[in-house]
Amino acid sequence: MKETNAKFAKNNRTFTIACGLAKTPATPRQASKFRRGRGKATRFARKALSIVNQETIEKIFKKEGGEENDHK
Q1: Which residues are within 8 A (CB) of 28 and not within 5 positions of it... i.e. 6 or more apart?
Q2: Quick check: pTM over 0.85?
Q3: What is the tally of structural domains in the chain?
Q4: Any domain includes 42
């Protein structure tokens, strides 16, 4: 079953960050526009995705022991 726009607005980290960058509320209506490639938050989708990816990389790096591991 397809995720509703209300659940998407609450649970999708990229969308919530994009809304924050666009200074617009993360509403189901805005989620619908975001998923269709429309609306204010869509302009910030790439920046938001890069922030989410950076957070994920930092979490993985911390789990591996940080700078103690030398990956050469």
Answers
A1: 4, 5, 6, 8, 9
A2: no
A3: 1
A4: yes
